[in-house]
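Something for you to look into today, if you have time. Just paste the record in under my message, thanks.
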Amino acid sequence: MVKSSQGFPHIQLRLTTEGTASPAPSGARKQNPQTAANLSDRQGHGKRLKSSIDSLISYWEDTQEKREEEEKPPLPETVKPIVLQIDPIAFDAEDLRKYGIEVIAELEDGYIVGASVNDPDFSKLREKIEKFIKEETGGKKVSEIWDILESIRRPDYILSQGLIEHWDLVKDNDIYTIDVGIACLGTKSQLPNYPQRNPDESDEKYAIRINSWIQKRQLKERDFLNGCWVNKSIME
C-alpha cells in the first residue's frame, strides 16, 4: 500500500504501520484451469506449441521471399517477432528470457509481444517444450505458456481498436508520419550499474573499470535496439 507523506505530498512513499501479522492461507495457490489442462495433456499441448513455432517460421520465410520479389530490404534474420499468451498470474513475463525471448510489451489477459533475439529457430523455446513433453526438469512451466499466436492474428492483439478498424485502409506504398514510443527493458533492468569506487582503488584502475562498464552498457543497448522495430508486414 502506498500513501503520500504529509511533509512531501508530491512524493509517493510506502506506508509503514504496525500490527499483528495475518497468517498466510493454508494450501497451495489454486492453479488456473487452463494451466492445469495443459499440464495433464503434455503431448497435446507441447505438439500444439511446436506446430505454432513451425508455422511462425514458415510465415517469416514466406514474408522474406515476398519482400525480395518486391525488391524491399530484408528483415533481420536474427530477430523474429512472436506473440504469446501466458498464465497472467503464475508466469513472470521476464522469465521468457530463459526461453530466448525478449519482452517488448505486456498486454492484457497475459498476451506478450516479444522477439527471439539471436535465436532465429526458437531453439531455446523448443528445448523447454521438449522437456515439458518428456516430464524433464525445467519444462513444467511450459504449461503456463497457453498459446503462440499465428501471424495473421497478431494485429488484433498489437493494435488499438481505432487502428484495427482502419488497418485494411493502410497501403504499403503510402507514406505515413507516426510517433512511436518503445520501452525496451521491462521492469527489471538488464544494464549494469555504474561502478562504485573501491576503498584505496587507484585512479588508473577505477578509470579502467569505468571504461569497461561503458563498453558493456553500449553493447547491451545496441543488441536490444537492433531487435526493436515496427513493420506492418511482420504483424499481418
User: Anything to note?
Assistant: The CA atoms of residues 160 and 166 lie 10 Å apart. The chain has two domains: 33-176, 186-230.
